[in-house]
Amino acid sequence: MSVDEYRRKYAYGEDYGTSHFKFGPVAEKPHVIENRGLFLGGESKVLLKLFGVDREVIVGPEIVRYLGSIEDVSRHLIYPMRDGVVAKDDERAWRVLYELTKYGFSLTKPDASDFQGFYVTAALSAVAPDYMIEKLFEIHARIDGEMNVVKAFTVIPQPLAVAIAEKTITCVVVESGHGNTQITPISMYPIRDAAVVLNRGGAEADAMAAEVLRDLGHEDLAREEKFVRMFKEAVGLVPRSLDEAIEAAKREPERFRTVFKVPGTRIEVDLGERAWMRFLIGEVPFNPEHEIFESYYKRGMPRPRDTVVGGERVRGTMPLGEAISLSVSKTSIELQPSLYKRVILSGGNFAWKVPPGLEDVAVDSAEKVRLQLLDFGIESEVSLVEDPLYSVWKGTIVYSLAVPDEFEWDWSRREGWFKRGIHY
Ligand SMILES: Nc1ncnc2c1ncn2[C@@H]1O[C@H](COP(=O)(O)OP(=O)(O)OP(=O)(O)O)[C@@H](O)[C@H]1O
Ligand SMILES: [Mg+2]
User: Fold this and answer.
1) Are strands 196-198 and 181-187 parallel, antiparallel or unpaired?
2) Does residue 347 sit in the same domain as residue 315?
3) Which end of the chain has fewer surrounding CB within 10 Å, N or C?
4) Ligand 1 near 365 CB (within 6 A)
5) In angstroms, what is the span from residue 160 Cα to ligand 2's centroid?
6) In angstroms, rounded to a whole number, what is the distance separating the alpha carbons of residues 107 and 22?
7) What is the rounded distance in angstroms from the CA atom of residue 137 to the CA atom of residue 261?
């Protein structure tokens, strides 16, 4: 088998998202586990031993089995990333990333006799500092030493992975996951100086959904993160125009009414007369600056924090359309029209659906962004990728297949392979 044939067989991708780690070899879809780890320190060593547990850190679906036996869950359950970044000296967080990465290989390592390790591409946030690349490099080298699974390793920015998956050279990628929203103009390579990051994502829509539950008298449910997220995804709607949508839903509450049944329980949440609040949830990712949200911020809903981009402060609440035009305005004037012709949305926070019959008031994410840009007098073509949750991972696989074997990692270009036998 030639090197290229081998690489096609054993390409592997990893997308380190704030809420989920997506990983796996060439396939239709990646494996997905939550980006978190449970530290068992402090629990009864005897009992753990009796039950055959000799690990300190648990990741993946097994975590659930231990939650009941742990007193102070929040102290033991570590979510290692914040807005796509792991702090340099946060040892517990890096330990979780090591365990997640290793879990991925343990789950997917082939038995085949020709297998000598994967060609692995990892995707990180476009704002991830270089030490994160170095740390991931160390982690993969270490795991290869333990399991013989990483023949070569490289890292690309998440927005570039999306552009690669969409086979587009010139575009603006807007990647909105749980933690943050990255806007990155791309012309062959991400234009770093023009990238704009907003400190908001699905988590902010969750916070709004929790407020809606509180208003409906379900304080207890509002505290359960997982439940809030399911509720948000099921009932949230993106309004064409928030004011008009609220008016329409107050005029005809029955048309917008929905009852959310909690799977596996008898709990039901009926939105009743408050069906108009569905639009608050869907508006947040796009325009948390709408005045209607002020009272919720006053009441304690966290306001998205500002970011500093190239020395300039960007409001965490800036409408998405405005943030896209800010980003594009930092590129050369000649390039700008072709960027607006191809605005690509990806990430779970854009997966909002439009229920049949509500098309007059609710829109999908692409239409919402197109309308927001139009508010600025900008004509654009906006599209949503086919698999918003997986397009980054898809791009990592394509990249693993495309980078020639002899390209070695180069820090100035930030591309090429870290290789067994050469770098570790
Ligand atoms: N159908 C849906 N409607 C609305 N939101 C959705 C839908 N499906 C998923 N989401 C939201 O998408 C978010 C997860 O997206 P994604 O997996 O892209 O994030 P991530 O990669 O883990 O985080 P990040 O990219 O910020 O580091 C969650 O907030 C989730 O609730
Ligand atoms: Mg992501």
Assistant:
1) antiparallel
2) yes
3) N
4) no
5) 12
6) 13
7) 45
DSSP 192: G
AA identity, residue 28: E
> Per DSSP, what are the bridge partners of residue 234?
none
Rg (alpha carbons) of the chain, rounded to whole number? 22
- Total domain count for the chain? 2
Nearest CA to ligand 1 atom 19: 177
Q: Which of 14, 16, 19, 125 to mutate to test the pocket of ligand 1 (most atoms within 8 A of CB)?
A: 19
- Judged by DSSP in three states, 1 sits in coil
Residues 313 and 221 in one domain: yes
Per the listing, tokens 């990728």 go with 385
pLDDT in tens, the chain (424 residues): 888 899 999 999 999 998 899 999 999 999 999 999 998 876 566 666 776 667 889 999 988 888 776 667 777 889 999 878 999 999 999 999 999 999 999 999 999 999 999 999 999 988 889 999 999 999 999 999 999 999 999 999 999 999 999 999 999 999 999 988 999 999 998 998 899 999 999 999 999 999 999 999 999 889 888 899 999 999 999 999 999 999 999 999 999 999 999 888 888 999 999 999 999 999 999 999 999 999 999 999 999 999 887 788 999 999 999 999 999 999 999 999 999 999 999 999 999 999 999 999 999 999 999 999 999 999 999 999 999 999 999 999 999 999 999 999 999 988 999 999 999 9
- Quote the ligand 2 centre to 247 CA distance (angstroms): 34
Residue whose entry in the numeric block shows the structure tokens 């297998």: 115
How many angstroms separate the alpha carbon of residue 143 from the centre of ligand 2? 23
pTM, entire model: 0.91
Residue range of the domain that includes 22: 3-36+79-157+391-419
Q: What token pair was written down for 402?
A: 């495309």
